[in-house]
Design brief:
Blueprint lengths: L8 E2 L2 E6 L6 E6 L2 H5 L5 E2 L3 E3 L2 E8 L11 E8 L13 E13 L4 E7 L5 E3 L5 E9 H5 L10 E15 L4 E5 L5 E9 L9 E2 L3 E3 L2 E3 L2 E2 L24 H4 L11 E9 L2 E5 L3
Pfam families: MATH_2 (PF22486)
Organism: Buddleja alternifolia
Protein name: MATH domain-containing protein
Length: 275
C-alpha cells in the first residue's frame, strides 16, 4: 500500500516526499520489533548539533501513551539541557526553530518528511523543550512492506533543524513543590550563655533538603528586625523574655547551658530565572 499524500496539509502538519537525506542527523534502528517485544515505550537518541544547540530524537515505537496514541509511531525533537543545568538555554532565553523529521523509504531511496505548518517555527524554552508529531505514521503504513519504511526489521529516521530566532524573554521564577517533605531537626548546645559578649551568635551550619541552614541567637535581644526578599533570616525577635529564660525552676538555662533546637521542613524551592 503506497503512502497516502493526497492531503499533505492535515492537522497543522505538512507531509512530503524528498530525495535528499536529512542534513543534521540519521537514526537507524535494527530489529525494530524488539522494542515492542521488550516493552520499550521510548527510545532517545544520542545528542547531535544543529544551529549551535544540542538535540535528540525521541521515538515511541507503539505511540506516545501519555497522549493516548496507540496506532501510530510518535516522533519528537528534543532540545538537550546544558551540562550544568536542567535548561538548555541561558536564563530567560528562548529560541524558535524550524525542523523536519524524516523516515527513509528503502524501496525507492526517498524520504517521507513531516514538518508543522507554523511559519515562524516552534518555540523551545525551559518549560517546553520537546516538539514533534504524536501521529508521525500509522503502524499499518509503517509495517507494509510495499512502502519500504520497515525492511528486514530495520528503519531509518532523521532530522533537520534550523534555528531562526533567539531572544531574551525577561526574568522568571520556578517554584518546585516537594511531595512528602521530610522534617529535619538540629540541636545546638550553648555553654556559658550568660558570658556571651557578642551581639549575635551563630550555630554550626547544618544541612536540610540540600540547603545549608544555621541558627542565630541574640543573647541581649535585637532592637530592630526587618524581613525582606533579600533577608534570608527568619525568626522571632521576642522569642523568650530574659526574666523567664533565667528562672531556675523553668529549666531553660541549667548550669549556664541551654539547648536550642531547629526543626526545618522544606515544602518547596523557588529558583529565579529557571523558566
Amino acid at each position: 500500500m503506497a503512502t497516502n499524500l493526497s492531503s499533505p496539509h492535515q492537522n497543522g502538519v505538512f507531509r512530503s516526499i524528498s530525495d535528499t537525506p536529512p542534513n543534521h542527523y540519521s537514526l537507524k534502528i535494527e530489529l525494530f520489533s524488539q522494542l515492542t517485544k521488550n516493552k520499550i515505550e521510548r527510545y532517545t537518541s544520542t545528542d547531535f548539533q544543529a544551529g549551535g544547540y544540542k538535540w535528540k530524537l525521541v521515538v515511541h515505537p507503539d505511540g506516545n501513551k501519555d497522549k493516548g496514541i496507540t496506532d501510530h509511531i510518535s516522533l519528537y525533537l528534543v532540545l538537550v539541557p546544558g551540562a550544568s543545568s536542567n535548561s538548555p538555554l541561558p536564563p530567560g532565553w528562548e529560541i524558535r526553530a524550524l525542523f523536519r523529521l524524516y523516515l527513509l523509504d528503502q524501496n525507492n531511496d526517498t524520504y517521507l518528511t513531516l514538518q508543522d505548518t507554523a511559519e515562524k517555527g516552534r518555540r523551545f524554552h525551559g518549560m517546553k523543550q520537546e516538539w514533534g508529531f504524536d501521529k508521525f505514521i500509522p503502524h499499518t503504513t509503517f509495517k507494509d512492506a510495499d512502502n519500504g519504511y520497515l525492511v528486514n526489521d530495520t528503519c531509518v529516521f532523521g532530522a533537520e533543524v534550523y534555528v531562526c530566532q533567539e531572544k531574551h524573554t525577561g526574568k522568571g521564577e520556578c517554584l518546585s513543590m516537594i511531595k512528602d517533605a521530610i522534617t529535619y531537626k538540629n540541636t545546638w548546645r550553648i555553654e556559658n550563655f550568660n558570658s556571651l559578649n557578642q551581639e549575635c551568635v551563630d550555630s554550626i551550619p547544618f544541612n536540610a533538603a540540600d540547603h545549608k541552614w544555621k541558627m542565630q541567637v541574640y543573647p541581649k535581644g535585637k532592637a530592630n528586625y526587618w524581613f525582606s526578599a533579600s533577608n534570608t533570616t527568619c525568626g522571632w525577635p521576642r522569642f523568650v523574655s530574659h526574666a523567664y529564660f533565667n528562672l531556675s525552676t523553668v529549666g531553660l538555662l541549667v548550669k549556664n547551658v541551654c539547648l536550642v533546637e531547629a526543626e526545618v521542613i522544606v515544602h518547596g524551592v523557588a529558583a529565579a530565572d529557571a523558566i
